[in-house]
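queue> pop job 88
queue> type: inverse folding (structure -> sequence)
queue> payload:
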C-alpha cells in the first residue's frame, strides 16, 4: 500500500490549498497538520468537510504564527527551536534542561489538534523531522501504538554505513512502540533520482509512505500529472489507519536491503 502524505497542512493558506487540490484529484491520501499556525483553524474545517485523514505535524523548529498562542508555549518554543536549530546534530542530543519544555509543547499541540479536529491524530510526524529528535524519542511522550513516521529509507550507496546503522537502530526502537510504514521516501528526491517506479514496486508488497509538499510547484505539477495518475493505477493507496487491516502479504524488512534493486 502507498500512503501519499502532504506535510504542513495549516501552516499557510497556500500550503493548505495546494494539498487540498491534490486530495480532490485523488493524488494524496492524507495530510499532516500544524497547529497554532496562521491557517490552522481554516485548514481544520476544510479537512472535516473533505473527510481527510489527518496526522499531527509536530512543530519544534519554528515560531508559532497563529493568533491565540499561549504565552508559555511561545516561551517553550523559543528555547526548543533555538537548541534544535543551532546545528544539524543538535537533534541527536538529549537536553535534560529542556525536558519540561518539550513535554509541554507536545501536550499543547496534541490538545490543540483534538480541539480543532475533534479526534486524535491518525499518525505523528514532525516539521523538519524533529519528531525523531532525542528529546522526543527518549521521553516517551508520544502514546504507544499510534502511527509514526520512520526515518528515510535509502537505496544502496546513498548513505554511509554509519548513517544507515544509526537510522536503522532508531527505526527498530520505534517499531517496538509505534505503527510504522515499512519504507519512507520523499517525492522530490524520488522524482529527481527517477526511482518512483521502484517506490511503486515496493508498495505492491509493503506499506510505503511517500512524503510530499504540494506547495512546491514541481511537486504539485507532478502530483496532478497524467504520469502520476498512470503510476497509481497499479498501486493500492491508503492511510496509516489502513495499515492495521489484515493483509495476506508477508512482513517487509525495515530498510531496503543491499541485494534488492541493485541495478
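queue> result:
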Amino acid at each position: 500500500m502507498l500512503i501519499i502524505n502532504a506535510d504542513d497542512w495549516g501552516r499557510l493558506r497556500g500550503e493548505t490549498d495546494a494539498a487540498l487540490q491534490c486530495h480532490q484529484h485523488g493524488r494524496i491520501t492524507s495530510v499532516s497538520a500544524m497547529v497554532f499556525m496562521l491557517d490552522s483553524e481554516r485548514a481544520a474545517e476544510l479537512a472535516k468537510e473533505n473527510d481527510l485523514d489527518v496526522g499531527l505535524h509536530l512543530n519544534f523548529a519554528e515560531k508559532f504564527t497563529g493568533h491565540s498562542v499561549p504565552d508559555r508555549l511561545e516561551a517553550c518554543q523559543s528555547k526548543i527551536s533555538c537548541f534544535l536549530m543551532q546545528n544539524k546534530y543538535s537533534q541527536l542530543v538529549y537536553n535534560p534542561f529542556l525536558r519540561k519544555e518539550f513535554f509541554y509543547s507536545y501536550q499543547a499541540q496534541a490538545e490543540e489538534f483534538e480541539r480543532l479536529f475533534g479526534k486524535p491524530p491518525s499518525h505523528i510526524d514532525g516539521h523538519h523531522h524533529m519528531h525523531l529528535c532525542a528529546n522526543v524519542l527518549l521521553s516517551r511522550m508520544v502514546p504507544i501504538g499510534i502511527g509514526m513516521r520512520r526515518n528515510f529509507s535509502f537505496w544502496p550507496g546513498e548513505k554511509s554505513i554509519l548513517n544507515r546503522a544509526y537510522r536503522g537502530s532508531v527505526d527498530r526502537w520505534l517499531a517496538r512502540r509505534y505503527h510504522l510504514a515499512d519504507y519512507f521516501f520523499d517525492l522530490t528526491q524520488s522524482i529527481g533520482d527517477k526511482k518512483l517506479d521502484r517506490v511503486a514496486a515496493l508498495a505492491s508488497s509493503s506499506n510505503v509512505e511517500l512524503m510530499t509538499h504540494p506547495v512546491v510547484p514541481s511537486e504539485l505539477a507532478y502530483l496532478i500529472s497524467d504520469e502520476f495518475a498512470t503510476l497509481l493505477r497499479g498501486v493500492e493507496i491508503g492511510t496509516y489507519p489502513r495499515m492495521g487491516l489484515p493483509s495476506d502479504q508477508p512482513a517487509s524488512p525495515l530498510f531496503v536491503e543491499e541485494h534488492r534493486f541493485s541495478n
